[in-house]
Amino acid sequence: MWPHALVLLLVALVAAAGLLMIAISGAQAAYSVSRGSLEHDVQAARAAGFTEADLKPVVTGLVAIQAAGTPRLGDRLSFYQRQKAAADNLRLELTDLQASRLTFYRSQVDTQVASAKQALDQDRSLGVAAADIAAMQKTLDDVVAKQASAATAGDLRKLAAAIAPVAAQAADLGKLQAAENAAIDQRTAALKAAHPGDIEGIRKDGQAALISSRNDGTMSNWLKLTALDPLVARVEAASGALAGTDLDQVARAAATVMVRNDTFHNKLAAAMPDKVIEVSLDGQHLWAYEKGKIVFDTLVTTGRPQLPTDSGPMSVLAKNSPWKMHSPWPRSSRWWYPDTVVRKVLWFTATGEGLHDANWEPNSMYGPGSQNNQAIASHGCIHLPGTTVDWMYDWAPIGTPVIVIPGDGTPASEQLKHDTIDTPEGQTAPKGS
Prior knowledge:
alpha+beta; 4-stranded mixed β-sheet; 11 helices; 11 strands; elongated
């Protein structure tokens, strides 16, 4: 038999051990709840748009808690109590961190909105067209409209990402406008010096630049360089004041048209294919461009009014040397012509239009108006004077774009209506020398 005292001692030890296990179990459960709540809060913060960089201090602490190994039995109660306290502290830290980062994100959006407003106001004061800043202004307006209701880090970060580029883009646009303004000032002074008191002389220079821009605009569209359309529109926007009666205003309008036309032409040159042939029907002129620079130009003669050369975007389809031109019309037709041999021809339509020499046409007859001279005008081809066809034949490979524009100085939108390439007449009408 065990002594009574020893029995009581054993009973007490068993009871104490049981109480300890109960306390440990309770502490473990409490820690598990706290850790689970912390993990849930971290996931909720991620879902709300806080970045890993934002959450790093708390996530680092959570990882340390999760990695902690379970100690020996005697240390477990204090271990779980410490782990719970650490998890509870991290939850408090997470709450403070989220509030701090929300304040930061709100401040960031406020600052970017203010910068965008300032940059856009500066653009307007410099004279940037409303159309050029419309997209940026819409972005700004959209962000401002959503600011008050933006409640999460994700909402605010999206607004910050949307508005962030606006100030820089507006500033870049402002720099370009300031540079253009300076160039216009210089060109205005030069025009007034070149034509002292002569408003018509100044107007004429401005109109010449406008015509150049419109013709270039037609060419850029037929080269499918429609991204340049806004530059054409900017020239047109300045052209209205050319009709004014105040010399200073007309001089500035002419200078604006000239400066903007220069900008457009340079952009067009940079965007052109390596080699391009341009022909103006009104000007009866041909230009050959290589890498955006004119490397050859000459007067030409195109089709007579009754058999006009097609206009529109074409290309060199084939080349022959020599070639016998044979009339597609019967001898009874007014358009019949006898078989004629040309030295070289570059075909640019499937209906028989080509660039070729014409030894029956004197060099002095080429140029504006020659297309109306029934004695020398072609039946749709483009005559090149003298031996110029030799250079063209060697220079232009098959596939070289041939852009034939009306070239009459009307707005590009009007000239583009005269594309005859895709019409039944352009596809089937017989052509010739």
